[in-house]
Amino acid sequence: EPEVTQTPSHQVTQMGQEVILRCVPISNHLYFYWYRQILGQKVEFLVSFYNNEISEKSEIFDDQFSVERPDGSNFTLKIRSTKLEDSAMYFCASSEFDSPGTAYEQYFGPGTRLTVT
Amino acid sequence: RKEVEQDPGPFNVPEGATVAFNCTYSNSASQSFFWYRQDCRKEPKLLMSVYSSGNEDGRFTAQLNRASQYISLLIRDSKLSDSATYLCVVNFNGGSQGNLIFGKGTKLSVKP
């Protein structure tokens, strides 16, 4: 069964450093997303991406964050200058195109645990 | 404000029990509804989409009440492997490829 993959599974970085989290969405999917989950809290939307551009972003997704699809398979999330409060699990998700008015089921990768020290 | 509210639990039930979870959402224009399950420190896994007419998948039944902005999940004949956190999830963006809003989840523990 196709699945979303993410690397690395765990990233430890120092405050102020840049990190890049990588995702390979399901191959026939057209919509890509990043979410994060701070330990003990709910999953929060960061950004959605379609047709090589950002479709929507939350207030969390400030200028420190960027996303890119550098080739036909990878989807990346970059945090330019990490802060302690960026420590969280980051999930990538993808969904396929569907007809309007139906559910866009999103499938999540296993996540990258980011620890900022 | 877009909110999804759930009873955090925990629900502690014996194997074979029937258990029901409820969820309310704040935006009446919401179009898409889902139940995900999340095991400890793992990713959310899609359990089922919730349709207006209600839908069933084996031991799982989901219902949607748009008038009350209420979603439910019923699990029959609980198994030990059903122990997890159940996340009520809503797409507020009119059925397009918008972001998902997650509830905090309801923890279920099924005991032998």
Please give a structural write-up.
The complex is a heterodimer of chains A (117) and B (112). Chain A is mostly beta strands and 117 residues long. Chain A is 0% helix and 48% strand. Chain A has no helices and eleven strands. In chain A, the strands form two sheets. In chain A, strands 2, 4, 5, 6, 9, 10 and 11 form a seven-stranded mixed sheet that branches. In chain A, a hairpin with a 6-residue loop joins strand 4 and strand 5. The termini of chain A are far apart. The mean pLDDT of chain A is 92. By secondary structure, chain B is mostly beta strands. Chain B is 0% helix and 54% strand. In chain B, strands 2, 4, 5, 9, 10 and 11 form a six-stranded mixed sheet that branches. Chains A and B meet through strand 4, strand 5, strand 9 and strand 10 of A and strand 4, strand 5 and strand 10 of B.
Structure characteristics:
heterodimer, A: 117 residues, mainly beta, seven-stranded mixed sheet, four-stranded antiparallel sheet, 11 strands, B: 112 residues, six-stranded mixed sheet, five-stranded antiparallel sheet, 54% strand
Oligomer: heterodimer
Name the average pLDDT of chain B: 91
Mean pLDDT of chain A: 92
Radius of gyration of chain B: 13 Å
Portion in strands of chain A:
over 45%
SSE sequence of chain B, one letter per element: EEEEEEEEEEE
